[in-house]
Amino acid sequence: MGVHPEGTSDNESAGGTGELTDDRFVGDADLSRWKTPAGRWLASRAQRASARLGPYGVLILILAAGAAVASLLAFTTGLVYEAVTEADGVAALDHPVLEAAMTLRSPALDAAATAYTDLAGGIGMPILAVIATAVLVLRRRSWTPAILIVTAAAGSLLMTVAGKQLIGRARPPLSDAVPPYEYSPSFPSGHSLNSFVIAGIVAYLIILRCRSRRARAWTVTAAALFALTIGLSRVFLGHHWLTDVLAAWTLGAAWLVLVITAHRLYLTARKTEKKGHSLGGTAGS
Predict the structure, then answer these.
(1) Most CB atoms within 10 A, among 32, 133, 156, 166?
(2) Strand partners, 30
(3) Cα separation values, 186 from 57, 175, 245, 246, Å
């Protein structure tokens, strides 16, 4: 049986305790170390909660609180969005960008873009998410990837629904869009938001097990290109305005930061728990 750097066996590394060895570091950076006062404060609260709820309980609790924050993010972004569109700021790009996209269309390109954008739709994205979750859970023999991906997807969906209900912005005219047409409110772009979040959290989980800088760079690049091209396909097809996509990316980035922070706090709680067990075992020996 092999032994990992901190005395963790192969069997342990496959499950919860092994996450400290396999998921705690990105390169030389220790995700359970907090350099800022705010980070240390959060870590101390997570450690206290872990004593009562356990590390998984803390992870779920923080993610649930994050979902509430996600709703607030959607509301705040909606207010800012309305101010921007009324001031005709970034929104001044919407019509010129759509007009430019329309000049690039052709039957073949339209069909390809439609097939591609469907990967991030209501059927394609859940299928991709389930496949990624199953692979990560089976390979790691841990429920952490499932908790993170499901929560990330739920928060993304919550922000999409909340944003559409709050703003109710009309999509580009059907005469400027490529069929099949869509009729739900335009803000934010659900395809763009969901693809950003799912690709981002899956990339994060993969990066945790990448041992080379090149592998991490390729993983980030692939996830970024997927999110970028899905967003651009929405504008190209005339299903969303550019600002709908930009807002979706902003919301997605903020939500990803919250989910990753929750995972870091989980790792910190696991580290504290392991130290407590080690000290207890030493004292009892």
Answers:
(1) 156
(2) 25
(3) 36, 16, 9, 12
DSSP sequence for 118-173 = GGGSTTHHHHHHHHHHHHHHHHHT-SHHHHHHHHHHHHHHHHHHHHHHHH-PPPSP
Separation CA 70–CA 64 (nearest Å): 10
Structure tokens at 257: 């930061």
Share of the chain above pLDDT 70, in %: 84
What pLDDT is recorded for position 81?
Answer: 67
pLDDT at 61 > cutoff 90: no
> How would DSSP label each residue in the chain?
--B-TTS-BHHHHHSTTTHHHHTSEETTEETT---SHHHHHHHHHHHHHHHHH-HHHHHHHHHHHHHHHHHHHHHHHHHHHHHHHHHTSGGGGHHHHHHHHHHT--HHHHHHHHHHHGGGSTTHHHHHHHHHHHHHHHHHT-SHHHHHHHHHHHHHHHHHHHHHHHH-PPPSPGGGSPSSP--S--SS-HHHHHHHHHHHHHHHHHHTT--SHHHHHHHHHHHHHHHHHHHHHHHHTTSS-HHHHHHHHHHHHHHHHHHHHHHHHHHHHHHHHHHHHHHHHHHH-
Q: Which residues of 113-123 are buried (b: 16+ CB within 10 A; e: fewer)?
A: bbebbbbbbee
**Contact partners, residue 73, CB within 8 Å, separation at least 6:** 159, 251, 254, 255
CA-derived radius of gyration, the chain = 21
Mean pLDDT (the chain, rounded)? 83
User: How far apart are the C-alpha atoms of 121 and 263, rounded to whole Å?
Assistant: 27
